[in-house]
Design brief:
Mean pLDDT: 96
Strand content: 15-25%
Oligomer: single chain
Strand order of the largest sheet: 17-18-16-15-19-20-21
Length: 487
C-alpha cells in the first residue's frame, strides 16, 4: 500500500502543506494548502506572526484530512529564530524575526567574553548577527526579565511541533544553526552559554532527524478530525531537508540550495574547522544522519524579491519574468554589489541601496530596473564563484558539477550565470527540494526507505532536472577581480 505523508514547508515569505504519496517507486506531491508568511512590525520590533502560522498548519491538516488523510507529519522552517515558553507551557511572546535590528553590534559584545576565533573553533558556525547565540545574548543583556520568565527555548519547527504534540524537543539540524551547539559532542555547548550567563534550563533535549516528537495531541485530533499520527522530526532546518534531495550518486558534490537565501556547500561525514575555514567564514551545520553541511550562507533571491516588492509599492506591477528580460537587455558587468553587505539585510528600498552601494564604491550607478537587476544577478553569480573557489581551497577537491536545488532553479538566467561564473556544469532540480527532503525523511522514519542513498535514488527518479553548460566563462574571468575587490 502507498504511504501518504504531510509535509509543512515554511519559507521566509510563504508556507505550504504538501501531501506526498509514495508507491514504492516514486514520490508524487500535491500542494493542498498555501499561505503567505507576513512578518509584523509592532512597536519597532519585527516579529513572526506565529499564531497565524499555527492556524495555517491547522488549515493544512484539515484540507489533507478531506482529501484522504495521511500517515505522518513533518515540519521544516528557517533557522536561528525561536519562541520562549514559560513554566506553565505558554508562549511568552511572538518570536522575533532574524531581520530585526536588535542584534546589531551584539557579535562584538559577545567577542569580549568569547573571542571570535574561540567561538568559531568551538562551534564551526559562520558568523551572522542574527545567530541564536547573539539573540540570546541580547536578551540576557537588555531584557533579562524575559529570560527570567522563560523555561524553554524552542526553535521554530520545534515550537510548531510542541503546539501539535505537547512535547518539547530540539531537532539536531536546526540546533546546529544556532551557534550554541558543540559539533564534536553533538550537544549544547553549555560551557560557552554559561560564560554568557544564558540559563541552561532553556535548552531542551536534542533529537535526531528521523526521530519522533510525539503523536498529534488528543485536542488537535478532536478539533481537526485528524488521525493520531506521529509528528516526525525531519531535517527541520529547510536547507537540511533540501540537501536530502540532492540527486547525486557521488560522494563529493557541490550544492546550491537556492531561495530567499543561497546555501552553497557540500556534504561531509564530519565538521571541518580550521584556519582556512575560519578565514572564509564557512559554516558546519548538521545534516540527516549527523552528516555536516559545510557551506556558506549567501544572500540569495531576497535581493530580487525585495527589489520587486519596492517597485510594486511604487506602482509598477512587474513580474519576475519581466525583471529577468529587463536585466538581459542591459550591458553586462557595469557594476557589482557584495550581496552579503549589511546594506541589504533589512527590508526596505533595496534598489536605492544598490545604487548607493555602487556610488559609495566608485562604480557606475545603475539607472533603471534592468540595470539594477543585471547588477544583482551578476553579483550573485560572482559570489557563487568566490564561494566555489573557497570550498575548493578548504577541501582540496575539484568538483565537476554544481547541483542547484530549490525554487531558485526556476530562474533560468541565474542558473546559466552560475554555470558561466563558476565555469562548470550545472544540474538544476528538484525545484521542490525542501518539501521532497521533508517527505523522504518521514519515509525513512517509517521504514519505507532503507537509507539516504535509496532516498536520493527515488528522488532522482521522481524529478526532471535541467542542465546548463558554461557559455560565457571568459567574460566572468575578466570581470571577477573588480567584484572580488568589493568583498
Amino acid at each position: 500500500m502507498s504511504k501518504r505523508i504531510l509535509a509543512f514547508d515554511f519559507g521566509a515569505s510563504s508556507g505550504r502543506a504538501i501531501l506526498g504519496t509514495y508507491d514504492g517507486g516514486r514520490i508524487q506531491m500535491e500542494e493542498v494548502h498555501r499561505f503567505s508568511n507576513d512578518p509584523v512590525n509592532v512597536a519597532g520590533v519585527f516579529h513572526w506572526d506565529v499564531l497565524r502560522l499555527f492556524h495555517e498548519i491547522k488549515q493544512g491538516i484539515t484540507k489533507a484530512v478531506h482529501v484522504g488523510g495521511f500517515d505522518a507529519i513533518g515540519i521544516d522552517t528557517w533557522g536561528v529564530d525561536f519562541g520562549l515558553i514559560d513554566k506553565k507551557g505558554r508562549l511568552i511572546n511572538n518570536p522575533v524575526h532574524y531581520r530585526d535590528v536588535r542584534t546589531v553590534g551584539m557579535m562584538e559584545k559577545v567577542f569580549e567574553t568569547i573571542p571570535k576565533d574561540e567561538l568559531y573553533g568551538r562551534t564551526g558556525i559562520q558568523f551572522a548577527a542574527f545567530n541564536t547565540i547573539f539573540q540570546l545574548a541580547y536578551l540576557q543583556q537588555n531584557e533579562p526579565e524575559i529570560l527570567a520568565q522563560a523555561d524553554k527555548m524552542l526553535l521554530m519547527p520545534d515550537l510548531f511541533a510542541y503546539l501539535l504534540t505537547g512535547m518539547m524537543r530540539a531537532e539536531y539540524t536546526n540546533v546546529s544553526t544556532t551557534q550554541c551547539l558543540d559539533p564534536i559532542t553533538g550537544d549544547w555547548a553549555y560551557d560557552l552559554l554559561d560564560r554568557l550567563q544564558i540559563p541552561r534550563r532553556l535548552f531542551p533535549p536534542i533529537i535526531d532527524a528521523g526521530e519522533t516528537y510525539g503523536l498529534l495531541s488528543d485536542a488537535i485530533c478532536e478539533e481537526l478530525g485528524a488521525p493520531k499520527v506521529p509528528v516526525i522530526a525531519v531535517a527541520t532546518h529547510d536547507t537540511g531537508s533540501a540537501v536530502v534531495s540532492v540527486p547525486s550518486s557521488e560522494k563529493d558534490f557541490i550544492f546550491i540550495s537556492c531561495g530567499t537565501w543561497s546555501l552553497f556547500g557540500t556534504e561531509l561525514a564530519k565538521p571541518v574547522i580550521n584556519e582556512t575555514s575560519f578565514k572564509f567564514n564557512v559554516t558546519n551545520e548538521g545534516g540527516y544522519g549527523r552528516t555536516t553541511r559545510f557551506l556558506k550562507n549567501i544572500m540569495g533571491l531576497w535581493l530580487i524579491q525585495e527589489s520587486r516588492r519596492q517597485w510594486i509599492r511604487e506602482g509598477f506591477d512587474v513580474s519576475y519574468g519581466d525583471l529577468e528580460k529587463e536585466a538581459l537587455a542591459c550591458e553586462p558587468f557595469r557594476c557589482f554589489i557584495n550581496p552579503d553587505a549589511d546594506d541589504f539585510v533589512a527590508p526596505g528600498n533595496l534598489p536605492k541601496r544598490v545604487q548607493e552601494f555602487c556610488r559609495r564604491t566608485g562604480q557606475y550607478v545603475p539607472q533603471n530596473r534592468g540595470e539594477i537587476m543585471r547588477c544583482i544577478y551578476e553579483s550573485l553569480a560572482m559570489k557563487y564563484r568566490y564561494t566555489f573557489r573557497a570550498i575548493h581551497e578548504v577541501m582540496g577537491l575539484d568538483y565537476k558539477t554544481i547541483h542547484m536545488i530549490g525554487g531558485g532553479t526556476k530562474d533560468r538566467l541565474l542558473c546559466q550565470m552560475t554555470a558561466d561564473a563558476c565555469n562548470t556544469h550545472v544540474i538544476a532540480g528538484p525545484i521542490e527540494a525542501t518539501a521532497t527532503g521533508n517527505i523522504a525523511v518521514q519515509l525513512l522514519a517509517l521504514g519505507e526507505l532503507k537509507d539516504l542513498t535509496e532516498a536520493r535514488k527515488i528522488i532522482a527518479l521522481s524529478e526532471d532536472p535541467k542542465f546548463y553548460e558554461p557559455q560565457n566563462a571568459t567574460a566572468y574571468d575578466d570581470a571577477y577581480s573588480r567584484f572580488e575587490a568589493l568583498l
